[in-house]
TrEMBL record:
Keywords: Membrane, Transmembrane, Transmembrane helix. The chain crosses the membrane at residues 31-52, 81-107, 127-154, 161-182, 188-205, 217-239, 251-279. It comes from Lithospermum erythrorhizon (Purple gromwell). The keyword Nucleotide-binding does not apply. The keyword Secreted does not apply. This is Polyadenylate-binding protein 1-B-binding protein. It comes from the Eukaryota.
Length: 317
């Protein structure tokens, strides 16, 4: 990101994507290793877990007597639990690695895969606390969403047109607007947790403030990412999981889709980092690169925590 800090606020979606794609060229070996060790396992798990759950679900559907249902349900729940733990762990690890590496490049700090891995334990603690706060809000969101989903089902059963339209509208807004906006809030809070001396609820509040004025741009970026991931998952399910006996085609297409998802996830993590700088620029909160450099060094034991006078906001670049 060679642009002046004050010009970052004017970046369009195309400009943000262009900047994001160009970042790995500054340290290709580091990003190659991050992609291979963290983002690839994450992407593979996202798609491949359905290969393990689909046969179990099929067997449960074809077992009306329920003679094997207990064992199959136990197996299914075990797989889902392990999958969620794996997804959670590698999602945080990938976010920590990419955000830290991008910030190091931004401050002209020496970058290597070893330094990134060394910083991850400290970064991960902050991201985990932020994730816990996000989970609290997600539980509240899901409770409201399920309540209106039940209301929608009741409206269909009772053939209440007014109730149906109202509940359908609320479900649509909650799913499409609130869910996407909350995802943007979460991604931005993750970057804040790494790059600023705050995390948890404070990071979410700061993320909300940064999104003001850039909410539409954040919404479009997250919606585009989720839409692409949805298409990839749909193609994987229809061609690979339900593809019949043509194993050659299923293997080739499956490998190709995993590769595409790896690229999409890497670019997505890069985009959320660049978007943070765009939001900071929009609010005229310049980033003191020397302070950020020292802050990043603190994760490696190179620096004492930031002085209270340096908050990395309201500073001139």
């Amino acid at each position: 990101m060679d642009l002046p800090a004050e010009d970052l606020q004017f970046l369009s979606i195309a400009d943000i994507l262009k900047e994001s794609v160009s970042i790995p060229k500054q340290s290709p070996k580091t990003f190659y290793l991050i992609t291979l060790t963290l983002i690839f396992p994450l992407s593979f798990a996202i798609l491949a877990h359905s290969l393990f759950t689909h046969p179990i679900l099929t067997q449960l559907q074809n077992d009306p007597s329920g003679t094997q249902s207990s064992a199959e349900w136990s197996k299914l729940l075990t797989i889902q639990f392990c999958y969620l733990i794996f997804l959670f762990a590698f999602s945080l690890l990938s976010t920590a690695a990419v955000v830290f590496t991008v910030a190091s490049l931004y401050t002209s700090k020496a970058v290597s895969f070893q330094s990134t891995i060394s910083a991850i334990p400290s970064v991960l603690k902050r991201l985990f606390v932020t994730f816990l706060w996000v989970s609290v809000f997600m539980v509240a969101y899901n409770v409201v969403f399920l309540a209106f989903l039940v209301l929608l089902i009741v409206a269909v059963d009772t053939q209440n047109v007014v109730l149906f339209v109202f509940s359908m509208l609320v479900v649509f807004v909650l799913f499409l607007v609130v869910h996407v906006y909350f995802s943007a809030l979460w991604h931005l809070a993750s970057v804040v947790s790494v790059l600023e001396p705050i995390y948890g609820f404070a990071a979410m509040r700061k993320s909300y403030e940064l999104l003001q004025g850039k909410g539409r741009l954040g919404f479009m970026l997250v919606f585009g990412y989720l839409a692409i991931c949805g298409v990839i998952n749909g193609l994987f399910g229809s061609i690979v999981v339900h593809g019949g006996d043509d194993y050659g085609t299923r293997i080739v297409v499956g490998g190709f889709l995993v590769g595409v998802l790896v690229i999409v996830n890497l670019i997505g993590l890069l985009v959320q980092s660049v978007f943070y700088y765009v939001c900071k620029s929009y609010h005229h909160q310049g980033i003191d690169k020397s302070a950020l450099h020292d802050h990043l060094g603190g994760y490696l034991g190179e620096y004492v925590p930031l002085k209270s006078s340096v908050q990395m906001e309201n500073l001139d670049a």
